[in-house]
Amino acid sequence: MSDFAPQVADVSRAAQDLVLGLMSMPWGQVSPSVYETGRLVTLAPWLTGHGERVRWLIDTQRSDGGWGAPEGYGLVPNLSATEALLSVLCRGDDTGVGVETLRDAAARGLRLLSRRLSGAALSLPDMPAIELIVPSLVMLINEHLAENGMSAPLALPVGMSVAPLEAVRAWLASEAEIPQKLLHALEIAGDAANGAAVVRVTAIGTVGASPAASAAWLGDRGPSEPGHPVRWHLEAIVRRHGGPVPVGLPITVFERGWVLSWLARARIPFEVPPEMLADLRASIGPAGTPAGAGLPPDADTTSVALYALALLGVPHRPDSLWAFETPTHFCTWQGEEGSSVSVNAHVLDAFGQYAAVWPAEAARYAPAIGKLTGWLLERQRENGSWDDRWHASPYYATVSCSLALHEFGGPGAAQAVRAAIEWVLDTQRDNGSWGRWSGTAEETAYALQLLLFAGSGERVQDAAARGYAYLLEAADVAEGPPLWHDKDLYRPQAVVRAAVLAAIHLAQSRSLGVRPVSQV
């Protein structure tokens, strides 16, 4: 039985411990990233934990030579890890890993990349900066191969070119102002990133909330200035994670908004430290709030923070969201290419919950609520689900859209919610779980929340009971697969734990096979 599974009376205690834990780790709790760790191996061999990062890459390589999730999700981590190992070999770093081990791992990574890039068009996920990251890494790998007379150069994926990368590098070199979102992937700029004048380092010493971007900007000052604020920030991150690093940190506002909203929506009894609520409220300015220091304000973090505040009895007027309105929907940030259904669902949550708390102001937000509802309904897939650019799993997008429509979409959204419930029922696995590639606790928690918030009937009760039983036994609650989109897939640990606690509490409140189980 999982050590996570709480007693019936312990969900509230677990939620309380989780919330208090956010205060002790204010930058956030995020899984390590193959992509970001590989970039630090290349960019910052002088940084504490270099050998541990190289060893971690070796240890996380699969038997087929690859890293990362299935399908096109593996390309970016495979490129980064392989290039990092080639850099170590070319420099002759003393990492404590044998040269033959390094050569074998790099060769297996190259063989896998060559197979994937030389065939038919590769379907790539919609992830931040992927059109810049892939060409930059392919170019670096090909430079290593040419310098050392190794195998044939890698090709770019069909339909991808170096033109966007070259344009961004020229833009940065010109010292013209660049969008803040580009700082999160500053490492793609190559030598132009080193000390770039247009970069503003945050008060905590991060560039773009990214270890790789921070190391790229710090450049040769890293080994020569051990007291530099950016080096200090990097040292703090690698010490916390034991060498490997996450793809983005800090995520303070993002983490708190999602954790509090999951727990409060499920009506789990818990107390929020007053200073956390005050900080969350203060983070929302006229242009919204960023997920963390070094990132631009975005509609997703802003709306989830607003929704959490309204649920917790300290509503904040959601007018900062107007900054993200377009004629048809709400963008994640200004200049976004594409759109996100989960972002618009969360904006609907924010407007709808505020209007519910302050009905006298409901008319002010009614047009936006109607527009958001219609836009989300138009994007539901034929099978009843939604998919999204910020998460690999359709269960996340579907629970986000369905619950927002269930609460605030009105009678016209009822059929769409029923269709989503049917899709969830139809896709449950034999062991009671749900998941895109395999059953996971995270995705099972999303499916359970949709069934228990919006579903009814014997079939729903039976599926929910089986899902609840799976969660009580799940082995991946603490360390499950990363499913959230950034430059690499990542797992916000506290956010996922909150989602699972919410699902367990909902199941227990409906007496779905409740039985005594082990302590958290």
In short:
With 520 residues, this protein is an all-alpha fold. The chain is 52% helix and 0% strand. It is built from 20 helices and no strands.
Instruction: Give the overall silhouette.
Output: globular
Residue runs with pLDDT of under 50 for 5 or more positions: 1-9, 514-520
Strand percent estimate: under 5%
Q: Could you state the order of secondary-structure elements as H and E?
A: HHHHHHHHHHHHHHHHHHHH
Distance between the termini: 11 Å
Quick one: biggest sheet? none
Number of strands: 0
Total helices: the number is 20
Let me know the average pLDDT.
93
Q: If you compute it from the alpha carbons, what radius of gyration comes out, rounded to the nearest whole angstrom? A: 23 Å
Overall structural class, as computed from helix and strand content, comes to mainly alpha
Features:
52% helix, disordered C terminus, single chain, 20 helices, 520 residues, disordered N terminus, mainly alpha
